[in-house]
Every structure is written in C-alpha cells, then in structure tokens.
Write a sequence for this structure.
C-alpha cells in the first residue's frame, strides 16, 4: 500500500522530480480542502513517500500554494529552503578554501550547507551579483564536483561515483535515454541501476527520476 504525505497533509496525486546534480522539486495536489491544510509557504515541510515497504523522506519547503477551481490546494515544493535562486551581493575573496566561498553563499540565502567536497584553495575569486545556484555551479564545475540538495535538505558537493543501485524489473523504453518503470523508492539519482527491458538487463547511470504518484510509476533518465 502506498501513502504520500507533505508535512501532515495527505497527497492525492502529484509529480516529484529528482535530478542529479540539482535539487528535487514537486507539484502536489493535497487531499484536504484549501484552508484546511497545515503546510504554509516558506515553512519547511518534509515530503514523505511510502511504497512497497520503502519509505523515502525528502526535506524541503513549499514555495507556492494555489487553489484549484474545485477548492483543493495545489503546492509547488522544492528540496531545501527554496532560496538558491536568490541573488548574492558581489564579494572578493583571496587565498581562501573554495568550501568557505560556498558556505558563505549558502548562509547568505538561508540554505543549509552539508558535505562540501571543494578542496581547492582559491588564490583569487570574484563573486558576482549572481544567484547562489550559479555561484555553486561555477565552483563545482571548477572542482569537478556535482552540486545537489540531498534528502536531508542540505546542499552537498561531491565527486560523482555512480554507486550500484537496485535492479528494476518491468521497465520499458519511452524514448532516447528515458524509461518507464514501476515506482521504486530505493533507486536514487546519481546511482547506476539495472533495468530489465523485456528480459534484457540494461545498466543505466541515473541522472533524473520522475515519480508519477497517481499511477505509482517512475520515469528513469540516463545520464
């Protein structure tokens, strides 16, 4: 039996997108009337997905709550604090660890830093008036790292290693690099899954997963 909950509110249906690198985001129709929901814009609320005895908890924030014509809440949710789009003040650095530049940016916009594997010392670094995400992307590209928001809602930087993930039966091709499969919450983006396509085992480095909650299916995208 499947159950999907945002904060303390049941989810009727929706779509959850998990890219790697990047941050998860979702569009969710809640199963309570508008005005009766407990989640609020800008206040952190975990997204809890339970299916086939596997529970996945993604920590994040509703950034917009709308009302459908039928009177149901439609929520836009993102992993983390939802503030990576905010523009930073220009700043000049000299002789500092790249990790410190990333931590400064995250604290300035209200995101939580996680494990930031950015080992270089920057002789000179100019921080432009740019979004926090753009700055992190520049640092990560320079260091050969992937920037992503983890299940804990914190921002991480790591060298992609593509660990082995689960075997996924019952998959079928949707198009170039895209597959449809039964919902499997144990599969993580950034891992290598083995998809069973008509009896053939196909290894896939997963760069993106899209959960279709109503049909309990997922799209798996190849890196």
């Amino acid at each position: 039996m499947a159950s999907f909950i945002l904060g303390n509110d049941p989810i009727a249906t929706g779509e959850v997108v998990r890219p790697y690198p990047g941050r998860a985001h979702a569009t969710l129709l809640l199963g309570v009337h508008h005005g009766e929901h407990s989640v609020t814009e800008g206040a952190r609320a975990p997204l809890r997905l339970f299916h086939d005895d596997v529970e996945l908890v993604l920590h994040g924030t509703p950034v917009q709550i709308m009302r459908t014509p039928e009177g149901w809440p439609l929520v836009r949710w993102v992993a983390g604090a939802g503030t990576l789009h905010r523009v930073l003040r220009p700043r000049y650095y000299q002789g500092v660890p790249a990790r410190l530049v990333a931590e400064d940016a995250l604290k300035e916009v209200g995101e939580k830093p996680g494990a930031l594997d950015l080992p270089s010392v920057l002789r000179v670094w100019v921080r432009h008036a740019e979004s926090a995400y753009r700055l992190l992307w520049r640092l990560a590209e320079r260091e050969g790292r992937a920037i992503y928001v983890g299940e804990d809602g914190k921002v991480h930087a790591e060298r992609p290693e593509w660990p082995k993930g689960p075997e996924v039966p019952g998959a079928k091709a949707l198009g170039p690099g895209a597959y449809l499969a039964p919902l499997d919450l144990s599969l993580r983006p950034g891992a290598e899954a083995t998809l069973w396509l008509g009896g053939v085992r196909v290894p896939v480095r997963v760069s993106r997963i899209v959960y279709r909650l109503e049909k309990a299916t997922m799209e798996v995208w190849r890196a």
Q: What stands out?
A: The mean pLDDT is 96. The helical segments are 98-109, 132-143. Residues 22 and 148 are 4 Å apart (CA to CA).
